[in-house]
Design a protein that fits this description.
12% strand; 5-stranded antiparallel beta sheet; single chain; elongated; 13 helices; alpha+beta; 5 strands
């Protein structure tokens, strides 16, 4: 996917848009999911041949105007538009790829922000899924599940390689989809360390990881709800917000909040048990 991230992303978004979404009739004998290439090309004002070359990776230098026309026609979100423009820069060679591993430290101000989020569960991760820093509240939530046992905890590795993950997340499939999408987003932008981790997991885990990593180019959700199964508190429905930390290191602050009154009471009970 990293070799043709732009084409893969364009094709997946085209296949996710229905004719009705752009005001076209469904028509008979339709075998293509979503829009046909010819339909997208016409609506975006480019030739079918050019769009085909973009999707197949045979043209690697689309202009910003073409990218914006395609993004508008596909109805991309703000995050998806940014990702598409970044993919275009990587594909054209305008972005330097490679380099040292991402730093595993966070700024003092970010650590202070985490302190102010106590006792809530919050953490800072990088594009590989490494847990760089966290609140005591997150340790109370994730520690008993084994998430933080490695010297460098990694959410993607935990979800796909730790036998406890399926019990920790009752809706394991959805959590796995999101973790694979996070890693895929980093790898598609030319991060060799993300690509290396993906290759490692493909070899170690097989189709459970590989199908999720290669099967879609959709971006990960930055907000939603997860169910965690805690040994003391039972099942907790937690809403989360994943916020970009300003800076060049591709770090994100992930904050978990109780999604219902039961989760709020359960988290308070866990805090009281630890304090006691």
């Amino acid at each position: 996917m990293a070799d043709n991230g732009l084409g893969t992303f364009l094709r997946s978004r085209r296949e996710a848009v229905t004719p009705a979404d752009v005001g076209l009739p469904l028509g008979p004998r339709r075998r293509t999911p979503g829009l046909r290439r010819a339909e997208l090309a016409t609506l975006a004002g480019v030739s079918v041949e050019y769009l085909t070359r973009l999707e197949q990776g045979r043209d690697r230098r689309p202009s910003p105007e073409v990218i914006e026309a395609l993004a508008g026609t596909l109805g991309l979100s703000a995050d998806e538009r940014v990702h598409l423009h970044r993919l275009a820069k990587v594909t054209s060679g305008d972005v330097c790829q490679g380099g040292p591993p991402p730093p595993r430290s966070v700024r003092p101000t970010v650590r202070e922000l985490l302190d102010r989020l106590e006792p809530g569960p919050a953490l800072v991760v990088n594009g590989l899924g490494d847990v760089l820093a966290h609140t005591d509240g997150f340790a109370r939530l994730a520690g008993p599940l084994g998430v933080l046992e490695p010297a460098v905890p990694n959410l993607v590795r935990y979800v796909f390689t730790d036998v406890r993950a399926a019990a920790a997340f009752p809706d394991w499939g959805s959590v796995a989809d999101e973790q694979a999408a996070d890693l895929r987003a980093a790898a598609s932008l030319g991060d060799p360390h993300a690509a290396s981790l993906a290759a490692e997991l493909s070899a170690a885990v097989g189709a459970r990881f590989r199908d999720r990593f290669e099967g879609s180019a959709a971006l990960p959700s930055r907000t939603g709800t997860e169910v965690w199964n805690h040994p003391e508190a039972g099942e907790l429905r937690l809403a989360y917000e994943s916020l970009a930390v300003p800076g060049p290191d591709e770090q994100r602050l992930v904050v978990h909040l109780p999604a219902d009154e039961g989760a709020a009471v359960a988290l308070e009970r866990v805090s009281a048990l630890v304090a006691g």
